[in-house]
Design a protein that fits this description.
Helix content is about 15%, strand content about 45%. By secondary structure, the chain is mostly beta strands.
Length: about 180
């Protein structure tokens, strides 16, 4: 069983529409951080969505039993910093990832800004923690998405520095659906 998110280009988003959705994160706690060094960073926010698969089934298939009401998945370069130091980046070791993850858990989002044309993002948390997302994939990189933002119904794909795609999604995993806990 593999998780599949079918990202059909339903339509391109306006910056205003995307900002409206990202503002929903302000005030939300970050309760989950998952790092796959040299691959991705995922942050979970809001309510907990529990998959209907058992803990054993989810573990056997490499899936998380819980996901956030909102999540962010970063495939491009990123850096976590506070007001005085760079804490961790997408190029650091597993130990540094783990330490950075601990610092984000329980922190609330204070602000979320994206900057066209490349769709770089800055997420400010309580305790002066800041996550900077650097979109490194350009128009020359085919089929590369820099980062995603997902709410319950839509997946916002920040692609190759030229557009934002939106897809309607269903969190099905071969018939297994996420349900609110």
């Amino acid at each position: 069983m593999k998780m599949s998110i079918e990202c059909k280009n339903e339509y391109s988003a306006s910056l205003g529409e995307v900002n409206d959705q990202l503002r929903l994160l302000v005030g939300q706690n970050c309760w989950g951080v998952r790092n796959k060094p040299e691959e991705s960073l995922r942050l979970d926010f809001g309510g907990v969505m529990r998959r209907t698969c058992s803990d054993k089934e989810c573990h056997e298939t490499g899936q998380d039993t819980c996901v956030g009401e909102f999540d962010i998945l970063v495939w491009c370069a990123w850096r976590l910093q506070d007001s005085e130091n760079a804490i961790c980046s997408s190029d650091n070791s597993d130990e540094q990832y783990e330490e950075a993850s601990k610092r984000l858990i329980g922190k609330k989002v204070v602000s979320f800004e994206i900057s066209p044309p490349a769709w770089d993002a800055t997420i400010t948390f309580t305790d002066n923690l800041v996550l900077k997302i650097f979109c490194i994939y350009t128009q020359d990189d085919e089929n590369e998405t820099n980062w995603f933002f997902r709410n319950k119904l839509k997946l916002y794909c920040f692609n190759r520095c030229d557009d934002i795609e939106i897809a309607n999604i269903a969190w099905d995993i071969e018939g297994v659906t996420c349900l609110p806990s």
